[in-house]
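User: I've been trying to design a sequence by hand for this structure and keep getting stuck. Would you show me what you'd pick, starting by listing the structure so we're on the same page?

Assistant: Good idea, let's start from the same input. This is the structure you sent:
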């Protein structure tokens, strides 16, 4: 729909920063409205709308692209649960054993604003470990920072694991109690699917502040906690987590809400809906 609005001049001005039309001096009616396909060098680049939009749009039949009235296709619009990779649906949901000694916290800082996460999480870990038995599983992209954090965490006698960015992050979800994360759509959808309560800290410089709105969608449904980066206070977050560890009512409510939200999100359900839509006359 964003590509349609751009081609028809119906979208906001910022769309010209995302899309650009293919200029063809021998333009014919059937060659109109082709959008330039940027080179997606990484998986992260290929997940962006600037890559996915043209890829999907350019494959549409010419009659669809030349149609001026979007209402003609409204009956084809189908709302589905967040779409995850197929292999994720086959893994068992997160079931945490209540007698585990450590409260496991997964930190997903990604590559965007990683320095902020490294420093603030270190402060949080120092505060939190004074009162609680925690196990920290933290994403760190810089090797020098890994060495520095390892040294400081060892001095705290903190149980921890540091890991790089990878495309199989979901394999880290086993037995996780809580996550602190940026608010990329894929990551928070996967956390919700696995019923892992999380605190979202949106990257404030993301295009159109889309990470904030990603997180707000879940926060409004009482599925997570949401804190803007400028409001992230390690002492306050430590107090929040300590309260969740000692009195789990609020924590368990989030898990229950997640279970209700995601219980119908299965590969078979989504595949069936899409197959019916595609085969409609």
């Amino acid at each position: 729909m964003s590509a349609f609005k751009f081609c028809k001049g119906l979208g906001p001005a910022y769309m010209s920063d995302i899309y650009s039309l293919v200029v063809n001096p021998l333009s014919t009616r059937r060659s109109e409205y082709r959008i330039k396909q940027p080179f997606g060098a990484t998986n992260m680049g290929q997940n962006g709308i600037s890559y996915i939009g043209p890829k999907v749009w350019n494959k549409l039949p010419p009659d669809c692209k030349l149609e001026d009235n979007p209402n003609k296709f409204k009956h084809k619009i189908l709302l589905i649960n967040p779409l995850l990779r197929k292999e994720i649906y086959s893994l068992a949901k997160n079931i945490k054993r209540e007698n585990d000694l450590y409260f496991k916290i997964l930190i997903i800082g990604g590559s965007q604003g990683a320095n902020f996460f490294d420093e603030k999480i270190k402060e949080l870990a120092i505060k939190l470990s004074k009162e609680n038995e925690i196990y920290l599983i933290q994403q760190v992209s810089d090797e020098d920072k890994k060495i520095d954090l390892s040294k400081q965490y060892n001095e705290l006698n903190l149980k921890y694991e540091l890991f790089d960015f990878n495309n199989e992050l979901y394999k880290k979800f086993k037995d996780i109690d809580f996550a602190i994360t940026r608010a990329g759509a894929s990551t928070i959808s996967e956390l919700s699917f696995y019923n892992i309560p999380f605190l979202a800290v949106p990257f404030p410089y993301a295009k159109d502040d889309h990470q904030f709105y990603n997180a707000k969608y879940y926060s409004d449904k009482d599925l997570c906690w949401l804190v803007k980066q400028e409001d992230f206070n390690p002492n306050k977050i430590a107090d929040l987590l300590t309260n969740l560890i000692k009195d789990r009512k609020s924590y368990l409510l989030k898990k229950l809400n997640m279970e209700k939200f995601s219980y119908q999100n299965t590969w078979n359900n989504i595949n069936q809906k899409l197959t019916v839509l595609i085969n409609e006359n």
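That's my pick for every position. To get oriented when you compare it with your attempt: DSSP finds 13 helices and six strands in the chain. The longest helix spans residues 114-129.
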